Amino acid sequence: MKIVDTHAHLHFRQFKDDVESLVKKFDSHGIEFVVNVGIDVIDSAESLVLARKFQKIYCSIGIHPHEASRVGRDYIEKLREMAADPKVVALGEMGLDYFRNFSEKADQIEVFKRQLILAKELDLPVIIHIREAYEDAYEILSEIGLPNAGGVVHAFSADTQWALKFVELGLFIGIGGPLTYPKNVVLRNVVQAIGTENIVTETDCPYLPPQQFRGKRNEPSYVRFVINEISQILKEDPSEISEKLVQNAKELFGL
Ligand SMILES: [Zn+2]
Predict the structure, then answer these.
(1) Computed over its alpha carbons, how large is the radius of gyration of the chain?
(2) Cis peptide before 93 (omega within 30 of 0)
(3) Global pTM?
(4) Predicted confidence (pLDDT) per residue in 192-211, tens digit
(5) Residue 89: which CATH number?
(6) CA proximity to 131, closest of 112, 146, 118
(7) In which band, very low, low, confident or very high, does the pLDDT at 101 lie, cut at 50, 70 and 90?
(8) What's the total number of domains in the chain?
(9) Ligand 1 centre distance from Cα of residue 39 (Å)
(10) Ligand 1 centroid to 100 CA: how many Å?
């Protein structure tokens, strides 16, 4: 089975000791490619170092809403410079997080908007993080618009109605480990309703492991558990589903 992880943080300390051996197993695990995601300027630079080192790792650069109150003045210029590297295939993760509110709401909104405008200028797809802020995020995305390259709402955690609204804007829905949690009926309904057409797979590793590994570290190869879950929900063959989901990810990131 071929798989893609469109949202990983393999440069985080949880992978410090074994990232090389994980990458060595990419081929045997059927991993086509991984998009490794940065969360602030310095962290994005570290993500890019990793991507330049390994052929199957690509990079997304951006400011996570948690970091929005701590950005320097020149973060947009720095992101623009970094984006010139051919290994950078997306901007993000960017967005709004009103669940934790680690940064002021006003800062989150401003930093999200400025990155969205930069993504349009560079025509790079966006990786969007939304937590308990679907209303505001939708408003901003409708107002500013998406880059032609589109984007993904990563670790989608709202209901079917919201999923359809974001799909209509031209976004993919990022589905990962939480789909396998027994209580997550809402997300299974989302998958049932939108089908594979508008889904991309992800892990958000080291976070959000599938049910089988709860409490442990997540990793890109565990995308296969997500695909198995999708195939059970849609009653379709897992290898056909994985084929389609790889295609979606390639289309999104222009790979
Ligand atoms: Zn993430």
Answers:
(1) 17
(2) yes
(3) 0.97
(4) 999 999 999 999 999 999 99
(5) 3.20.20.140
(6) 112
(7) confident
(8) 1
(9) 8
(10) 14
